[in-house]
Amino acid sequence: LKISPLLVYLCKFCSMPYTLTTFLVVLSLCSLEGAALSGRSQDKHSTLQVQEQNSSAVDGGLLQHLRVELEYELQPASPVKNKVVLAIIELAGLGFCGVDHCYMDRPLMGVIKGLTLGACGVWAFIDYVFIVYNCLVRSSSINAVSFTATFSDSTISPAFWITVVVLVLKVLSWCVKQCLPVTDLYFKQRELRERMATVAQPTTTESPTTNEAPSA
């Protein structure tokens, strides 16, 4: 503890026996009180820092929560659609004109698809494959090739069976179309052979002979 020389000089000048001791005690008490005050101020400062850190953490968590909520609210919810209607539209070939996108709340995409004729068939074929696959796997939602929707549970199984039946009929129809020319050719060749066999047979037509007596 440093004591000012001026203070010591004043104590000597006053020539009082207990003056220096008294001043030293007072200075000691003042220094102790100052140290206590400085300690309390440091504790208060550290407490404020901790509170600020906690409040910043709370504010950060609150802001994060608000951001997540805002993103959830701004994110468009997938509409609930009838899967049977979508399957019929696609299997009937109406997706080539963009009707499938219009039904799935994508009117602009549907108009573009219709005007471009399904992008020359490529776009329509891709949509057809994805929707048919989605129906066959009995998925409760779709989120691919610009289709985003959730299907009602009561329409998933009917859409599956409709897709299966239509695909089987299409396969049978294709097989019949492939077999018809061969069958037609077979019957034509058979008819031609029968005609040739008929022409090759000799025609035996006997003319009746009449013996008439000469008249006298």
From TrEMBL:
Subcellular location: Membrane
Keyword Magnesium included in the entry's annotation: no
Location of the TM2 domain: 81-129
Keyword annotations of the record: Membrane, Transmembrane, Transmembrane helix
UniProt topology in membrane: Multi-pass membrane protein
Pfam families: TM2
Main location: membrane
InterPro entries on file: TM2 (IPR007829)
Regions crossing the membrane: 6-32, 114-136, 156-176
Any single Gene Ontology cellular-component annotation: membrane
Signal peptide: none
Name the UniProt record assigns to this protein: TM2 domain-containing protein
Species whose genome carries this gene: Noctiluca scintillans
